[in-house]
Amino acid sequence: MNPDSADVLPVFDIGAVLGKRPDEYNAEDLALCQGIAQCLHQTGCLIVRDPRVPAGMNDQFLDLLERYFGQPTERKLEDCRPHLDYQVGATPPGTEVPRCVVDPALQEQLRRLQSGNQATTPTGADAKWRFMWRVGPRPAHTAFPELNAEPVVPKAFPEWRGLMDGWGAALLGAATAVAGLAAVGLGLEPGALQELMSGGPHLLAPTGSDLDVNSRTGVVLAGYHYDLNLLTVHGRSRFPGLYVWLRDGRRVAVRIPAGCLLMQAGKQLEWLTGGHIRAGMHEVVVTEVTLTAADAARAAGRSTWRVSSTVFTHCCSDAVLRPLGRFGEQQPATAAVQQQPPQQQQEAPAPAGCTSGDPTESYPALKAGEQVQRELEAICLRKVGADATNVSCPGSGSGSGANSGCSSGSGSGMKGEGLGTGSSRAGNIVSSSGLAGAHTTATGVAVAGNR
Ligand SMILES: O=C(O)CCC(=O)C(=O)O
Ligand SMILES: [Fe+2]
């Protein structure tokens, strides 16, 4: 059985530093920053308590999205914007293709996951719906208009804008604070990450999956992938199914302690740290515990739509991604080895090119908007070669060749709905027996040897 995130990851309570400038941080605050940076380096994940985030708003948000996704399919299809690369509005099932389906380097990584920590190998597009809602101010000028497009406001939801803006801003605020603390802990300029985030195409991007339809264990709602953005924030979902991999290769069931958020590093954070922090891998699959929760919801007359409370924070599209500060300096081979986390199990293989001592070779200077476009092409949300220059993504090992998994009719409808893409896998089933949460202090990462 896979451990729960609440048992293996410490909780970082950021309440004490909110409202302080970095030059006012005391020793405890600095230890918090270092703990956050170390946890991101060692695991790719963080559990954070930000007292400003109103927990009740998560429920209002989930209630709203359950009603939204519960609408007839035709209604939701009106909200799709394929010509804007689905970066606003709805995305139907059968559209987004998990990166591992099209990326040989990730396929190799999948094969090397050890027994008990394996992923459900997806064979096609995800079974989930999604809704993308822009959060925060849009840039006055941008070379990437489709990433910064006007929002889609679904009909028949007068409360939509207020609730989506409110919950999105709360999660973005938490991630922005964490970015400041992580920068300090990483030894960067305190504002280095936050400045890049300013004007970024941040998205409140809930997924929606109907568990009445996707009702077999092993159905892949979102196949093994990393997120392409800077830092992803997850509030609580009402249904389990999200699994993350720590850098040491352990597969962990996401359980978020009450009042907390789970954050995971995305590709842009990997880029900015020259691979010191790796984008965290994860998947969403239907398991016995998902179905048990769906049965309970059905019996109580509640919605059986699994809605995620996800925010993708981004670097500004027109800003340049490159390894920052010390991460841009060439590492002697021995120093690079010393940076590796303790080996509990076999670590996931490094992305292609990451063994080079020169981080700018693996992570060349590139506008964030171009990096996003490349990734969107690879996962079939953007038409190949729409207008971006051809730059390969670190870890892909495939450049433009990563697009082979996109069928020509991508985005045209409901290829995956109800069918799912997974085959049943006994090893994929976890038990719901509640393990008591290990609430550890914010300093020090209680990861290695914690279980
Ligand atoms: O549905 C979830 O819980 C997370 C989905 C996810 O990984 C994604 O949207 O990138
Ligand atoms: Fe994801």
Structural class: alpha+beta
Number of helices: 13
- The top level CATH class name: Mainly Beta
Apparent shape: globular
Return the average pLDDT rounded to an integer.
Answer: 84
- Alpha-carbon Rg, integer: 20 Å
- The CATH superfamily title: B-lactam Antibiotic, Isopenicillin N Synthase, Chain
Keywords:
globular; binds fe (ii) ion; 13 helices; Jelly Rolls; 451 residues; four-stranded antiparallel beta sheet; alpha+beta; disordered C terminus
How would you characterize this protein structure?
This protein has 451 residues and is α+β, with helices and mostly antiparallel strands. It has a single domain (5-337, 351-428), classed as B-lactam Antibiotic, Isopenicillin N Synthase, Chain (Jelly Rolls, Sandwich). Helices cover 28% and strands 14% of the residues. It has 13 helices and 16 strands. Strands 1, 2, 3, 4, 5, 6, 8, 11, 13 and 14 form a 10-stranded mixed beta sheet that branches. Strands 7-12-9-10 form a 4-stranded antiparallel beta sheet. A two-stranded antiparallel ribbon has the order 15-16. It is globular and about 55 Å long. The two termini are 12 Å apart. Residues 331-352, 436-451 have a biased composition (Low complexity). This is Isopenicillin N synthase-like Fe(2+) 2OG dioxygenase domain-containing protein. Residues 425-434 have a biased composition (Polar residues). GO terms for molecular function: metal ion binding; oxidoreductase activity.
